[in-house]
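Input chain follows. Return structure tokens only.
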Amino acid sequence: MFAKTPTPPYVAVIFTTTREEADDGYVEAAAKMEELVQGQSGYLGLESVRDTQGLGITVSYWANEASAQAWRVRAEHAAVRAVGRERWYSGWRLRVAVIHREESS
């Protein structure tokens, strides 16, 4: 459900996409990336949703910018990103933010 994050500050990488209709290996690749990222230094957690029209938002949380950048350049992740841009997404946007405050109930 909610990612377990530390007391701020920490980094959020927000990946918003619109998916193509064909799966073409997407589910398997997403599962593999989720498995790999678990072992990535500085990784804090993930929250992800997708609506019925194909709009998805995935937020990954990182201890710092360097940790997020290390994941970005990891070879396996870079390869899957390239396939995603070519095959799975009709549009995407990536945003990186520093979380300064967190509140919850």
